[in-house]
């Protein structure tokens, strides 16, 4: 075994096993959650089918020939059973922590589509005498996705409230007390609705940290048992492959979940696929660069969506322009040089939210909370990212994309390129109006290292679905306005 140096903290350093009452409460919360999901799905699917029937009846040209709803009950029963079975097979009744609503919507789209196809195939053999109108099937498919998602969102919210109150805790142990482990700890503490309770760190090289270091790697089996750990996060880039495999094996024997936090500054995180080289098995690195059809598809999405948004938002843009002009002297728009694709500079346009002489005495600096340089309306515009709406014009001109790494000024790019490994790689794609880092709250004066990690993840894992997910999450991020100033 590769791990050694046995060292374990005294029991008093960290909380002992959870009490029987706490374990029972957690089980009851999870059982109630699963039961609520099943019942909620049942009701949502049934209501969606009834709505689909009524909607088709309203649009039917000859209502006297519409089949009564009662005759479709066998089909509805088959559809409900099939969809519930599909959800169960796709593990959608397992309590999860940290799954976004957008990810849940995507999973529901796939599951409901598969379930409907299976249900209709079975119906063709078992219910031959009943021909369900295609409109009813289409409406029921679409409404099932929406209704099930809304019901599950409500149930998920209740679960988050329960976890925030400490009713369903999951004990978490972090391997590695360095910068990566500290990042995990801060994420957990800033998201109490995930229900994680960090019991401490495991590290052979450090004895202190923002949470207690409970022991070395050799003490891991005892620590898992002593503290009732349910999940382990490996966040130590200096561990060897053999040590990581040992940790995974120990967690597997203890029936403990394990996640590995990738360090993008030591390991190149890329998607791989099976390949071969003269008959030898290989792992081929997936080409995620935007070329050919991918580039054309992304550009088409940018042009269509940016044009649509500019038309829909035109009244708002005019009101904002008028407000900027009336509340402070200076131009309505603020044009600033930013660094885009391949390191090329371009003029980035925004609504002016600061005084004209904002950097006359300070030079280039980042904005800060309660920044005295903002105009009377500027703080509101920055709080809800309204000042960035004119960048839709940059998208149409081809300087930017709707989704991508946020562009920085040349002054900061030069600094970050020297300090942060692989920082320049974020310029392999066009800068974006929104991005993966921004929708995860990394704005303002958040750490540039962590922000770069998110940007590189996006560059290396681009897909149309990923762009759509980020655009949908942007709506919630703008409403929250976290770290926007």
Describe the structure.
The chain is 49% helix and 12% strand. It folds into three domains: 11-18 and 169-260, NAD(P)-binding Rossmann-like Domain (Rossmann fold, 3-Layer(aba) Sandwich); 22-164, no CATH class; 292-480, no CATH class. Mean pLDDT is 81; it is low at 1-15 and 264-270. The strands form four sheets. A five-stranded parallel sheet has the order 3-2-1-4-5, sandwiched between helices. Strands 6-7 form a two-stranded antiparallel sheet. It is built from 15 helices and eleven strands. Helix 1 runs antiparallel to helix 4 (134-164), helix 2 (73-89) crosses helix 3 and helix 3 packs antiparallel against helix 4.
- The share of residues in extended strands comes to 5-15%
Helix content: 40-55%
Task: Catalogue the unreliable spans.
Answer: 1-15, 264-270
Provide the gyration radius in Å: 27 Å
Task: Set down the secondary structure blueprint.
Layout: H1 20-59, H2 73-89, H3 101-126, H4 134-164, E1 170-175, H5 179-190, E2 196-202, E3 213-215, H6 220-227, E4 231-234, H7 241-253, E5 257-260, E6 272-277, E7 280-285, H8 292-312, H9 314-327, E8 333-339, E9 345-351, H10 378-383, H11 391-397, E10 400-403, H12 410-419, E11 431-434, H13 436-439, H14 448-460, H15 464-480
Parallel strand pairs: 1-2, 1-4, 2-3, 4-5, 10-11
Antiparallel strand pairs: 6-7, 8-9
């Amino acid at each position: 075994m590769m791990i050694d140096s046995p060292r374990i903290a005294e029991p008093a350093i960290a909380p002992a096993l959870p009490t029987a009452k706490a374990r029972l409460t957690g089980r009851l919360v999870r059982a109630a959650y699963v039961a609520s999901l099943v019942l909620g799905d049942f009701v949502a699917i049934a209501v969606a089918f009834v709505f689909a029937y009524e909607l088709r009846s309203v649009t039917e040209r000859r209502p006297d020939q519409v089949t009564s709803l009662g005759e479709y009950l066998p089909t509805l029963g088959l559809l409900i059973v099939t969809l519930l079975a599909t959800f169960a097979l796709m593990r959608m009744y397992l309590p999860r922590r940290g799954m976004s609503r957008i990810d849940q919507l995507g999973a529901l789209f796939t599951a409901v589509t598969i379930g409907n196809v299976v249900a209709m195939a079975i119906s063709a053999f078992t219910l031959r005498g009943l021909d369900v109108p295609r409109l009813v099937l289409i409406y029921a498919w679409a409404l099932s996705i929406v209704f099930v998602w809304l019901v599950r969102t409500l149930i998920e919210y209740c679960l988050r409230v329960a976890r925030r109150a400490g009713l369903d805790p999951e004990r978490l142990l972090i391997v590695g007390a360095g910068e990566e482990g500290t990042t995990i700890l801060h994420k957990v503490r800033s998201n109490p609705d995930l229900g994680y309770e960090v019991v401490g760190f495991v590290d052979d090289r450090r004895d202190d940290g923002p949470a207690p270091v409970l022991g070395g790697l050799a003490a891991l089996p005892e620590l898992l048992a002593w503290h009732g750990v349910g999940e382990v996060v490996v966040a130590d880039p200096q561990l060897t492959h053999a040590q990581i495999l040992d940790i995974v094996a120990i967690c597997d024997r203890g029936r403990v979940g394990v996640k590995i936090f990738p360090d993008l500054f030591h390991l190149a995180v890329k998607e791989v696929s099976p390949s071969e080289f003269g008959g030898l098995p290989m792992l081929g690195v997936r080409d995620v660069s935007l070329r050919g059809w991918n580039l054309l598809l992304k550009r088409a999405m940018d042009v269509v969506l940016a044009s649509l948004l500019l038309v829909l938002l035109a009244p708002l843009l005019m009101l904002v322009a008028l407000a900027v002009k009336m509340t402070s002297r200076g131009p309505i728009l603020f044009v600033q040089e930013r660094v885009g694709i391949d390191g090329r500079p371009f003029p980035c346009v925004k609504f002016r939210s600061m005084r004209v002489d904002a950097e006359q005495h300070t030079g280039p600096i980042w904005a800060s909370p309660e920044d005295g340089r903002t105009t009377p309306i500027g703080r509101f515009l920055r709080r809800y990212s309204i000042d960035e709406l004119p960048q839709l014009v940059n998208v149409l001109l081809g300087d930017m994309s709707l989704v991508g790494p946020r562009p920085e000024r040349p002054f900061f790019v030069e600094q970050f390129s020297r300090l942060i490994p692989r920082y320049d790689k974020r310029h392999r794609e066009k800068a974006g109006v929104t991005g993966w880092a921004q929708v995860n709250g990394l704005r303002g004066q958040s750490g540039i290292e962590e922000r770069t990690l998110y940007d590189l993840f996006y560059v290396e894992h681009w897909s149309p679905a990923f762009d759509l997910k980020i655009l949908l999450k942007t709506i919630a991020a703008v409403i929250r306005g976290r770290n926007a100033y």
